[in-house]
Specification:
Radius of gyration: 18 Å
Distance between the termini: 39 Å
Order of helices and strands: EEEHEHEHEHEHEHEHHEHH
CATH topology: TIM Barrel
Number of strands: 10
Number of helices: 10
Structural class: alpha/beta
CATH architecture: Alpha-Beta Barrel
Helix content: 25-40%
Length: 276
């Protein structure tokens, strides 16, 4: 598969989702958030990943409207937070997100975490939003296989995307394999393990071979595993570096050596054990 800056992953309904995007988690300063998004769009990013809990949907929408890039060419993901879950509550939460974004539709809407009592009803609401053409694709975030199986037993439309923590210390191979079998695309959040892998000797050695940084090498690893990746940065040079990963290809051996770094080690919470 030849990858380039404009590469997309075709979801099961035919929607094309850009393979690399800007994550905007913790970008709570409006000016900084808008500048980072503007820089990303100017640099070639066509995918912005936000969430209601990030408190920057308004800035995402404003940056999109201010951009010279047409709305149709930008893929916007947002998510319903845990305290807003349930059928009616999710519909209301989506309406608020859409209002804050100032957009007519969202490309992808996700359940942020699988809240035990409500995630099935939450996904049912997401199906309705899809039927009403307010979203172009359905999805979930932080869902294990058993969560996906519970949804599949009741859903008319399967989730098209599952956004999960994934990086070389947490490869999530079994879950990725299950999702691949079901036609569910994977988006990797915390793709650099919150920066915790940048000093890893194996990654530094491999990066040196290609004249790339460890961050670029890790992003390339995600892409070559058919994962959608959403690195976060507010620094213009890093935003540019993170998408400058299409002029080299990791060898099969180097991919396997990076895979071998797996320790099933999370930087965030386990979707079966979270308290927020």
């Amino acid at each position: 598969m030849k990858l380039h800056k404009d590469s997309t992953k075709q979801l099961v309904n035919g929607v094309e989702m850009p393979r690399i995007g800007l994550g905007v988690y913790k970008m709570t300063d409006p000016e900084i958030a808008m500048q980072a998004i503007a820089t990303a769009l100017d640099t070639g990013y066509r995918h912005i990943d936000t969430a209601s809990i990030y408190a920057n949907e308004k800035e995402v929408g404003e940056a999109v409207r201010n951009s010279s890039v047409s709305r149709e060419d930008i893929f916007i993901t947002t998510k319903v937070w845990n305290t807003d879950q349930g059928y009616d509550q999710t519909l209301k939460a989506f309406e608020k997100s859409l209002q804050l974004l100032g957009l007519e539709y969202v490309d992808l809407y996700l359940t942020h975490w699988a809240v035990k009592e409500t995630f099935l009803d939450t996904y049912r609401a997401i199906e309705r939003l899809y039927d009403e053409k307010l979203i172009r694709a359905t999805g979930v975030s932080n869902h294990h296989q058993h969560h996906l199986e519970a949804i599949a037993a009741k859903a008319n439309i399967q989730p098209m995307v599952n956004q999960i923590e994934c990086h070389p210390r947490l490869t999530q191979f079994d879950l990725r394999e299950y999702c691949a079998e079901k036609g569910i695309a994977i988006t990797s959040w915390s793709p650099l393990a919150r920066g915790g892998l940048l000093e890893e000797p194996t990654l530094q050695r491999i990066s040196g071979k290609y004249g790339k940084s460890p961050a670029q090498t890790i992003i390339r690893w995600h892409l070559q595993h058919d994962l959608i990746v959403i690195p976060k940065s507010i620094t213009p040079a890093r935003i540019a570096d993170n998408i400058n990963v299409f002029d080299f290809e990791l060898s099969f051996e180097d991919m396997k050596n990076i895979d071998a770094l797996n320790l099933n080690e999370r930087s965030g919470s386990d979707p079966d054990n979270f308290t927020f």
